[in-house]
Amino acid sequence: MERMTDEPARWSQATVYPDMWVDPDNDPRNSDGVSPDGELATLQDFLTGYRMTLRMKCEGLDPEQLARRSVPPSTMSLLGLIRHLAEVERDWQNWISDGEPLPPLYGGPDGDFDGAVAEQAVVDAAYAALEREQAATDAALAEHPDLSERLGKDGFAVRELLVHRIEEYARHCGHADLLRECVDGRVGQ
User: Fold this and answer.
1) DSSP 3-state assignment of 182?
2) How far apart are CA 87 and CA 83, in angstroms?
3) Neighbours of 25 (CB within 10 A)
4) Tell me: the pLDDT tens digits for 75-96?
5) In whole angstroms, what is the distance from residue 117 CA to residue 126 CA?
6) What is the distance between the alpha carbons of residues 148 and 97, in angstroms, rounded to a whole number?
7) What's the pTM value of the predicted model, to 2 decimals?
8) In terms of Cα–Cα distance, which of 160, 93, 161 is closest to 129?
């Protein structure tokens, strides 16, 4: 008799390496070309890869699955991560600027996670906000190609801002791995 369990079965779309998310030939993060030249291009390439990874971890899920919380008392969910990273991108724009800070997207502390509810409109708005805020931060930093240039009221170096963005996405991609595995057993790479 097979035992019933609440744990999802582990699976992957990969066929060549079943412990990977996708086969290397189908991985949109892989390129057959040479790696980027220069520090700025390398940092931007890593950021792009982690952004893509986050989207891959959320692909194919419905609003309920995206909004599913990890383990109590945590409010973390994949949808919450999307909203959180949109909020973080907006905050980085404040670090770059000397002007008045932009208001938070989701209100007070933990609004990004607390408001991540299983509604298609919330999911659509979260993805739109993430794309918009990423584009705005990218555009603001594109005006400053010198990685040593110091920006904003606190004088953060462009290099520091780029590395911090990579670190933020990388950390949350690790969270997304675990959250996705809890939703449907799919494991990541």
Assistant:
1) helix
2) 6
3) 8
4) 999 999 999 999 999 999 999 9
5) 11
6) 16
7) 0.85
8) 93
